[in-house]
Amino acid sequence: MSAEPTPQPMIAPSILSADFARLADEAAGVADADWLHVDVMDAHFVPNLTIGLPVVQALRKATAIPLDCHLMIEDPDRWAIGYAEAGAYNVTVHVEAAKDPVALAKNLRAAGAKAGLSVKPNTPLEPYVDVLKHYDTLLVMSVEPGFGGQGFIAHVLDKVRTARRLVDTGHLTLLVEIDGGINPDTIEAAAEAGVDCFVAGSAVFGADDPAGAVSRLRDQAGRSRHRVSSGGGR
Ligand code: DX5
Ligand code: ZN
User: Fold this and answer.
1) Which of this chain's residues are annotated to bind substrate (predicted)?
2) How many other C-beta atoms are found inside a 10 Å radius of the C-beta of residue 8?
3) E strand segments, the chain
């Protein structure tokens, strides 16, 4: 069995760069986005504090865009399930924080969500290949988690290539997602490496026209992938 990348690249705007006082309007402004990326930070796993479950519950009612919750928190084994129960489409936990990531994935799926596993830029993929068999998404961090607007760390593309190969050869069945520093200057390299879903915060909500930024990023990623598939390997 071989799996091709999802037919069209997916764009997940991160509301970390949106106006927190106008979240429903900001979501409506990117209604064409594939997922809405929600960065949950607890000031322990990362040195920043953002939003939590009540905001996700409110957002779920305010938008039809599937919510992609990225939990940068300690003890996700205890807290992640609440986000699935709140109706998040995909709930991603960090492998560096999870105590029993296989049980966690099973619980998330049982609660009706997709299960995502994230790796920080310097966390290797190889020790987690068997764990990833239980997951629907792999979120490769291309910045140190904690803040938007940071520079893209290019060496993580090696992990994207590895994950893409594992998916294409049927060893894993998951979506490859990247998060951090994605913008018009970096998205092509990420697309060529095999990313399916691109999180973009400042490049979308920092733009004059967020909806236009989403469609331009999607087109740009699509063209790069096409170049790869018609021109040889990655
Ligand atoms: C960082 C967050 C990202 C962040 C990305 O810890 O996980 O989702 O919002 O922001 P940009 O796209 O500005 O790097
Ligand atoms: Zn994120």
Assistant:
1) 14, 70, 146-149, 179-181, 201-202
2) 13
3) 10-13, 36-41, 67-72, 90-94, 114-119, 137-141, 175-179, 197-200
Pocket flag, ligand 1, residue 50 (CB < 6 Å): no
Q: Which tokens hold the place of 77?
A: 């084994």
Q: What is the residue extent of each domain of the chain?
A: 10-229
Question: Pocket of ligand 1, candidates 15, 42, 67, 179: which has the most ligand atoms within 8 Å of its Cβ, to mutate?
Answer: 179
Residue nearest to atom 7 of ligand 1 (CA): 145
Sheet holding 197-200, edge to edge: 10-13, 197-200, 175-179, 137-141, 114-119, 90-94, 67-72, 36-41
Is the Cβ atom of 116 under 6 angstroms away from ligand 1?
Answer: no
pLDDT tens digits for 163-172? Answer: 999 999 999 9
pLDDT digits (tens, 9 = 90+) for 72-91: 999 999 999 999 999 999 99
The pTM of this model reads 0.96
CATH class of 10-229: alpha beta
Give the CA angle between residues 75, 81, 84 to the nearest 5°: 135
Cβ-based neighbours of 1, under 8 Å, separated by 6 or more:
170
Average pLDDT, the chain: 96
Residue 94 Cβ < 6 Å to ligand 1: no
The residue written with tokens 């760390």 in the block is 153
Distance from residue 134's CA to the centre of ligand 1 (Å): 25
Please give the single-letter amino acid code of residue 199: V
